[in-house]
Design goal:
single chain; alpha+beta; FAD/NAD(P)-binding domain; 3 domains; five-stranded mixed beta sheet; 4 helices
């Protein structure tokens, strides 16, 4: 890819500080060795992700590490019959972090892959609080559920829906973008009306973004059917 899937601070601390080059838009085209690896050849790739002839570089080495992406730990979710997101492969949840199966709540890397442990801790506390409430009181039927649309550069959101009558005073919605955006803005709409426009110098898929939905402010917009979060030019 033409961008890193990791955090900027990790690139600085793990690569830049040790003089290790980062070659974006490159791929391995050949691996040499019989008993073990003795060398690899890499090449630059074009917009079609295919190697560009004449850009090959050979490196003598005895080890090749491959990063093939991360998926949430979803075996228990599958066994329980929980609905999974086609984007994250983790559970679809509402603002209480409750899944499609009543009484089952999800958080952390079961829900979606995180980059900061702080976010995992916050989700865990929220899911635990709501699970305890469910054990004590059972499920309270909601009058309405508002869908959160992820469009125009936003790949997905967690949660996927909001219950305006039962949500906390504020709900944090986390998401990732689908590509690198420079000098753009995160925008949020209640129905057709824009309620947030936050400028960002750079956004990348490797770093999670978030917006906060305020219960009182949401109530001011009456009977809306959806909330939309997207990336727009400044």
């Amino acid at each position: 890819m033409p961008y890193s899937g990791g955090l900027k601070r990790n690139i600085v601390q793990c690569l830049d500080d040790y003089g290790i080059p980062l070659k974006l838009s490159h791929t391995v085209v050949d691996i040499e060795g019989k008993e073990r690896v003795t060398g690899i050849t890499i090449a630059e790739v074009g917009p079609d992700m295919k190697p560009i002839p004449g850009t090959e570089e050979y490196y003598s080495c005895d080890t090749l590490l491959l990063s093939v992406g991360l998926l949430p730990e979803n075996e228990l979710s599958k066994i329980a019959g929980v609905e999974l997101s086609t984007i994250t492969s983790g559970p679809v949840v509402n603002d209480a972090l409750e899944t499609s199966v009543e009484g089952i709540f999800a958080c952390g890397n079961v829900l979606h892959v995180h980059d900061l442990v702080d976010f995992v801790s916050q989700e865990a506390a929220n899911a635990g609080k709501n699970a305890a409430k469910y054990v004590k009181e059972g499920r309270v039927a909601s009058n309405k559920e508002i869908k959160i649309n992820a469009v125009d550069g936003v790949r997905y959101t967690v949660p996927c829906t909001i219950r305006p009558d039962q949500m906390d005073d504020t709900v944090t919605v986390r998401f990732r973008v689908g590509q690198v955006f420079k000098n753009s803005a995160v925008t949020m709409y209640f129905g057709d009306e824009q309620v947030l426009k936050r400028k960002k110098q750079i956004m990348a898929p490797g770093e999670m973004e978030q917006v906060v939905i305020d219960k009182k402010k949401l109530a001011e917009y009456g009977d809306i059917s959806d909330i939309t979060i997207k990336i727009e030019s400044v």
